[in-house]
Amino acid sequence: MNRDILLCGVGGQGTVLASKLIAAAAMSSGYTVHSAETIGMAQRGGSVTSHVRIGDRAYSPLIPEGNADVILAFEPAEAVRNLTLLKKNGVVIVNRVPVKPVTESLQDTGYDGSRMIEYLQSKCAGLVVVDAEKICGELGSSRYFNVAILGVAVGRGQIGLSAEAVLREIEAKVPEKYRQMNQKAFYLGKRIGDTYAAQ
Amino acid sequence: MGKEYVMGNAAIALGALAAGVNVATGYPGTPSSEIIEALEKYAFGKLRYGKGESKSFHLEWSVNEKAALEVAAGAAYAGARTLVTMKQVGLNVASDPLMSLAYVGVKGGMVVVVADDPGPISSQTEQDTRIFAYYSRLPVFDPSSPEEAYVMIQDAFDYSEKYNTPVLFRPTTRICHAYAPIAVEEDLKPKEYEGFVKDSKRWVIFPKLSFMNHEMIEKRNPLIGEDFSSYSGNTVTGEGKKAIFTSGISYAYVREYTKDREDVRVCRIATPYPFPETFALKCLKGVEEALCVEELSPFLESELQRLAGVHHLKVRILGKMTGNGRLAGENTADGTASLVQEFLGEENSKENVDSRDMPRLPVRPPVLCAGCPHRASFYAVKKACAGRKAYFCGDIGCYTLGNAMPLDMADTCLCMGAGITMAQGLHWTDEEAVSFAFVGDSTFFASGLTGVANAIYNEADIILCVLDNSTTAMTGHQPHPGTGRNMMGHIVEKIDIAKVLEGLGVQRIMTVNPLDLNEAVAAVQECMTLPGVKAMIFKSPCIAVSKTESRMRIFEQCIGCKKCIREIGCPAIIVREDRVTIDEGMCTGCGLCAQVCPVGAIGGDADE
Ligand code: SF4
Ligand code: SF4
What we know:
The structure holds two protein chains of two kinds. Chain A has helices at about 15-30, 75-80, 115-125, 130-140, 145-155, 165-175, 175-199, and strands at about 5-10, 35-40, 45-55, 70-75, 85-95, 125-130. By secondary structure, chain A is an alpha/beta fold. Chain B is of the alpha/beta class. In chain B, about 35% of the residues lie in helices and about 15% in strands. Chain B has 21 helices and 22 strands. Chains A and B meet through helix 1, strand 2, helix 2, strand 5 and helix 3 of A and strand 8, helix 10, helix 13 and strand 20 of B. The structure holds iron/sulfur cluster (2 copies). One iron/sulfur cluster binds near residues 561, 563, 564 and 580 of chain B.
């Protein structure tokens, strides 16, 4: 199997854990995997991406344009920013809830993410819009969204990995006290993904 | 231990352990910092490396790159295998000992890992360590992937010992920070070595020794180049009248495009210096055109041009110098694909989203974290200087971000420690203005002390502001001499910055909490009335390390003047539905905004 998965969002949203879980699940499923993160100078609030490349024909650490099978976007503008990486007929799973740039208060541009969602709709047939506020409302915290969106992707059948393989890594990698909530988040996301897969 | 999924830097660390490294030193710098951290993790954790062995393992964050290299040189004279790590600009700091060491040589294998940063992504320069290798006459290895780095660093140790010379090893950011599975061996042991044998003819550098060794090195290097011609890292695949020469991460990009095609000749140079001429000549056989795909300097291109000239080859060499490649910045898989396509005369078959009608995207520039004490320190100085002419010399670290609006508190930034000395230079051009130098605690120890001595000796008037957050924050929170912990896991005496300054002869030293705005402003104002070298130590821990539970809120009294936003620019203060509010998830409760608000509308739970 060869599969390129891009995760993108804003620093602090938890893209790194999600990419680690995918990479570990791919490895334990017997695949070769490579990944890379671009973090840059910003610790918080900057654009971040994680590139996960499953299969033994990936040479570049970063996914080339037009190669990503799926983009997991934790923020609408970040999905647009990375859209050129998407394969023809690739799938984008995007969070509807925008993160305003930290400089927005100084210079209001009125960014609210809706233009981004419209643009994504016009560009990609396989778009799945999820609502982090709703999902996290059910979970009682925004910190589990990363695992929930991963659940959506697995349910949608886009990662090429089984739910069991990912759950095994949640078991192994997530500290005890957050484990149960992460499992819950994963199932919640997976249910959403399942409905899209069925369509 | 089986396969570990690790970062390229950890692969380098694991390779060094597999090579039996005895002493490892370094100074933090993106993208190299995780090598020393991974050594700590694996050597003292899982692998129990060196436990119970007669020759054990020493690991340290040195105070700067020069110190790191010299510590390692001492150990290498004794026959120990040594690893030194730094980023590319760190090599400028370490270049004094390294240039001399190149003449003297080593007994134990010494590998100096210098991480280059094409882009540059988090550096001041786009210097190319391959050029430094040529300049210093030291062999250099150039890995193309984390897996290869793991193997190649072990080879580097062997070559170092074979030729009794330090060798350079230069990964780039994309390799340092890429993750790959690495098979980790068990039962790794530090190498046995003889110990230091006195021999002043060998270990004391004198002009005569330098002359003799210079001649020896110039005769030896072509032999190393010959040896490298059969090195397994130098590879050629495919056939054709057109050849692509490449190295490092660019090789990965070329492979990404050509995959396993047999109709394109791809020559990878893993040892750019001494150049493996015999290998390159073999690659060029029957070739009419050669394209060099490389980052930073046109190194391969120059070498091939030279080779073609010397051997009267009928081959056109293309690369940066002929407009076939970017002059600055990093290569990408896509950029490389375009170059190669053009070279081979192939069609662009890429199918991706047409993004020309993309809506304008929000920009997310790096800013100081919410609650960062540097923001408060800069603001205090800014307030104290209102109405006075002042120069603000910045330095390298998180606090470089103090240049962003609305703080706008870095007029200059050059290199590690330069703020302190540049402030003196500005002072000598304008004695009416107040010259400030901002320096972080780690940078102060790395290269600030000499600048302070210089100011005192030469009677400059400056105000030194040490932004002491008790860590090396920018590169991922490494300890340093002021933190009281070292990489051997030992608790050690903290070096007290105020005492150091006192010892150097600074007349007035004030330590303040920057989060107490009035106190801090008053202290800066007092310093501004005094002659000579004054120092302010703004002491407050990095907020990314010392997490807090407290939060601030904006109450009903808020008149919406936005002074809090305009003055300090904390990212946690946002405008939501036309009301100024504080993002609870981000706020750390530092309280700076509460001290700025003219109507006292900001407070914690207790102020309700
Ligand atoms: S207290 Fe004010 S300045 Fe400090 S982190 Fe919170 S919002 Fe920012
Ligand atoms: S400075 Fe005070 S009054 Fe002005 S916007 Fe901020 S909280 Fe409101």
